[in-house]
Design goal:
About 50% of the residues lie in helices and about 15% in strands. The protein is α/β, with parallel strands linked by helices. Helix 2 packs parallel to helix 3, helix 6 packs parallel to helix 9 and helix 10 runs antiparallel to helix 11. Bound molecules: uridine-5'-diphosphate (UDP) and magnesium ion (MG). The site of magnesium ion has 5 residues, from loops. Magnesium ion (MG) binds next to loops. Its main location: membrane. It holds the Pfam family Glycos_transf_2. Belongs to the glycosyltransferase 2 family. GtrB subfamily.
Length: about 325
């Protein structure tokens, strides 16, 4: 990704600060290798930078290690949650705490190379508000995960009200005004990929190859991914509600035709007691469809219930901000 930028860009950049937001949960083995690589990449770039680690209720030594790093650096902030709230919540917290002119969200497991941050920042300095990072290849991930991710992105794009860029994960850069826009959204359903797309603004997409996880294991089990997908779909589309009402209309229409058919048949050739299979099949299909429709309504109602309680998204146990701005 070697791109030549005009000299003027290099001049403007030096005054600007990039905040790197890193959500993490039980990643004790990853933190030090990640920080070393991040520091190396950003110290040799023209940008001022800070990093905000959001410890999402880790139960291992993650917090200790983070505090250690913070004690030896002026541009490291560490926020700790009172328990595990989830990656979306951790990212939301990071976006609130970051003070930079642009914010980059990155995973701690080195699947997203920190060396690309500088290129993202150049794209931002040249006018982009959002820099999406599109994964060309996802090394070290099972075909099942890639296939489900593929289907998910296609599906959500088909039905969502805003286009969610395909194969773009959470690794991305947001300008200050895009971050402020996200921070002003009060909803509890934090499907961040959708929220990022919702704010609009001028976005550019860079491509990269996703590395395998450096160490540790993925925190995303399939059940969790399924729930995440539901969150995405119900948060950004009411298509399922519409589909279920159309299916209802179709079924009622078919039932009506069927009734007319029986009515005429009885008039013309009389009634016999046959037809039990049709009856039971119809009853079961209708029963199933009704339950499905109620279930879909339930998914939305449940989320409405959660929204209406207006609980905070997360609770910070403490936040130690970076000591001072790290000026180049
Ligand atoms: N993560 C988090 N809270 C969670 C689960 C994950 O902050 O409840 C962090 C995790 O530590 C990592 C990032 O989110 O920095 C991505 O997680 P992971 O690598 O497990 O997901 P994958 O790359 O497999 O999608
Ligand atoms: Mg990962």
């Amino acid at each position: 990704m070697e791109t030549e930028y005009p000299v003027q860009v290099a001049d403007i950049v030096s005054a600007r600060k990039i905040s790197v937001v890193v959500p993490l949960y039980n990643e004790e083995v990853m933190i030090t290798p990640f920080h070393t690589r991040l520091k190396k990449a950003l110290d040799s770039s023209p940008w001022n930078w800070e990093v905000i680690y959001v410890n999402d209720g880790s139960t291992d030594r993650s917090r200790l290690i983070l505090e250690g790093i913070r004690n030896n650096a002026t541009n490291v902030g560490v926020a700790s949650f009172t328990r595990n709230f989830g990656k979306e919540e951790a990212m939301s917290a990071g976006l609130k705490l970051a003070t930079g002119d642009a914010v980059v969200i990155i995973d701690v497991d080195l699947q997203d190379p920190p060396e690309l941050i500088s290129a993202m920042a150049y794209a931002w300095a040249s006018g982009a508000d959002i820099v999406n990072m599109k994964r060309l290849e996802r090394h070290g991930e099972s075909w099942m995960k890639k296939a489900t991710a593929h289907i998910f992105y296609r599906l959500i794009n088909r039905i969502s009200d805003v286009p969610v860029p395909a194969d773009v994960g959470d690794f991305r850069l947001l300008s200050r005004r895009a971050v402020d826009a996200i921070n002003s959204l009060e909803e509890r359903n934090r499907f961040m990929k959708g929220l990022f797309a919702w704010v609009g603004y001028h976005s550019v997409t860079l491509e990269y190859n996703r590395e395998p996880r450096f160490a540790g294991t993925s925190k995303w089990k399939y059940w969790r991914l399924w729930n995440f997908a539901l969150e995405g779909i119900t948060g950004f589309s009411i298509a399922p509600l519409k589909i279920s009402s159309y299916v209802g209309v179709m079924c009622a229409g078919m039932a009506f035709l069927y009734a007319a058919y029986f009515f005429l048949k009885t008039l013309i050739i009389g009634d016999d007691v046959k037809g039990f299979p049709t009856l039971i099949v119809t009853v079961m299909i209708l029963g199933g469809l009704q339950l499905m429709a109620i279930g879909i309504i339930g998914e939305y109602l449940g989320r409405l219930f959660i929204e209406s309680k207006r609980r905070p998204l997360y609770l910070l146990e403490n936040y130690r901000a970076p000591l001072q701005d790290h000026k180049k």
